[in-house]
Design brief:
Layout: E1 6-9, H1 20-35, E2 39-42, H2 46-49, H3 60-64, E3 84-88, E4 91-95, H4 108-121, E5 128-132, H5 149-164, E6 169-171
Parallel strand pairs: 1-2, 4-5, 5-6
Antiparallel strand pairs: 3-4
Helix pairs in contact: 4-5
Length: about 190
């Protein structure tokens, strides 16, 4: 009987090119009733990102959403709306950009991710850490994670940071199928 607390979306909200019109007609209009009573947290995707740029924070995606880039909702400040974190109750959420931003360990996203996870890892107020982004590190659904650049790089460079940082759950989109892994790391 309890209502939802928030709406977490792994994106492709404005299919196909992420234009302002597609955001309005394909996401905001059909989701209007839900969005009036729920907080939405979303991530950059390939379709939403075709007409927006994560480096500059410009385009329809960034016009439609204002994300907490200064740490104002919990976690470490990222300085970019494409990567951010927030706390909800005793859960810490981490949003990554698997489309535009570099996934290499010495670049902006990975450097910020390490800081953010370090900040919450030993926090007695955090029971769970959930990370989400668009391109899954592992997929054999409608996309092949062994052949596509984004999943390969998320698996190679970002996944070890998540594991070291104590992330409990990862949620993704992109592959248009339901997939999940076996329990990992003794869980």
């Amino acid at each position: 009987q309890r209502p939802f607390d928030l709406f977490l979306h792994t994106s492709d909200l404005a299919y196909l090119e992420g234009t302002e019109q597609q955001f309005q007609t394909r996401f905001f209009k059909p989701s209007g009733a839900s969005l009036r009573r729920l907080v939405l947290w979303t991530t950059m995707s390939n379709h939403d990102g075709y007409s927006s740029k994560s480096d500059s924070g410009e385009g329809p995606f960034f016009d439609a959403y204002i994300m907490p880039s200064k740490g104002e909702a919990g976690g470490a400040p990222s300085g970019r709306e494409a990567i951010f974190s927030f706390d909800h109750g005793r859960v810490h959420f981490v949003c990554l950009d698997s489309f535009h931003l570099s996934r290499k360990t010495n670049e902006v996203m990975a450097t910020w991710l390490k800081k953010d996870l370090k900040k919450v890892k030993d926090d007695a107020k955090t029971d769970w850490i959930i990370a989400y982004w668009h391109h899954p590190a592992y997929t054999k659904g409608s996309h092949d994670g062994t052949r596509e650049k984004e999943p390969l790089e998320m698996r190679q460079w970002i996944q070890p940071i998540l594991e070291a940082g104590g992330v409990d759950l990862v949620l993704n989109g992109h592959s248009h199928t339901y997939e999940r892994t076996m329990l990992i790391d003794g869980c």
